[in-house]
Amino acid sequence: MVDETAVKLKALESAALRRKIEAVARPGETYEQAAARIRQNEENTILHRSHTHRAPSSDRQADIFVPTRYDVGTRDSRSIMDVAVFRLSKREKRAGDVIRYDLPDGYVEVKAGPDGMASIWDYDIVLMLISYLTDAMNRYCEGKEDKPGRTFRPHVSEILKFCRKGDGGRQIEEVEKALDRLRGTTIKSVREQPAIGGKRGLREIKAEGLIGDYTVLSYTETGKIASVEIEIPKWLHREVTDRKRPDVLTVHPDYFLIEPGIGRFIYRLARRAAGKSVAKWSFQLIYQRSGSTGTFKKFTFTLRKLIETNDLPEYRLAEESGQEGPLLVIKHKESLIEN
Fold first, then answer.
1. How many other CB atoms sit within 10 Å of the CB of residue 136?
2. What are phi and psi of 56, to 5 degrees?
3. Which range, of 135-149, 236-250, 269-283, averages the lowest pLDDT?
4. Quick one: which of 115, 260, 283, 295 has the fewest CB in 10 Å?
């Protein structure tokens, strides 16, 4: 015998679902079309996970014992925003590895030390150096303080808050490991100037680390970090302090919430190339500039997943066909509104 109560409950649920679908149906859309659209949206939500993670709880927690240096706007060096001077993978340490980028007038090599190549997540600390050096230089130009030197002494909590990471013990340990990799990763630049007008040609070679020396003091009883001192590399100090206007670009705070390395790299590329408008890059060129060790086919698959999700801060991504292969179209959201 059929349970009449169960039948009534099922009928009520069906009626409620129908009212819900009818309420969100678009003009001219049938009930079946609206139901299919809602079902597809739900499937897409499951299949296409966001490429950003939630902000840490420390974002909302004020700490009266920690200075507010992490409130400084994030900036990046324009000169190295369109090549990867770090690895994009969390799994591959790439110790002793070399990435080479050929340029019209020479080449750039990124060399990793025995602790592994610095990752794009380690590079968050370099972003912090650039940001605070730029901010200090602005105050110097306003006559508010002395010209900044090459020594930076942040509290470890400042580093974690700036990079929008949690403040747990594991995160603190990772700071020291990141400093090891940054210290051991060097950028070698080889540029050639041709002989012109009787002048002899020149070949210039420069090599510097992503950071200079560093010192970490920890309490022996607990192992907790007491203080951090980082030497700002000469190339970075020159770039910010020797120019009337430092060649840096602001970075959206949600950059630190981007999960995959390729997502972070594409955002930096967008800031450099698209700015507030539009830019187009071939998949092949992006692959070459990323320093990826995987195949182009796998890289293309990952890039297309990023386009599907389309949740990077400030920018919208799309794909279009080009004469020599697929193109990534990067558009700033403000330009979409204006158009």
1. 20
2. -65, 155
3. 236-250
4. 295
Last residue of a domain, one of 257, 288, 319: 257
Range of the domain at 248: 57-257
Q: What is the pLDDT of residue 298?
A: 93
Task: Report the candidate in 337, 276, 283 with the shortest Cα–Cα distance to residue 306.
Answer: 283
In 124-257, alpha helices (H): 124-141, 156-162, 169-184, 234-241
52 within some domain: no
Q: Clarify whether residues 185 and 324 are in a common domain.
A: no
What total number of domains does the chain contain?
3
Contact 315, 333 (CB under 8 A): yes
Query: Quick check: 337 pLDDT over 60?
Result: no
The pLDDT confidence band at residue 33, using thresholds 50, 70 and 90, is: confident
Between β-strands 98-103 and 278-282, what pairing exists: parallel, antiparallel or unpaired? unpaired
Co-location of 292 and 193 in the same domain: no
Name every residue whose Cβ is closer than 8 Å to that of residue 192 and which is 6 or more positions away in sequence: 105, 106, 201, 202, 203, 204
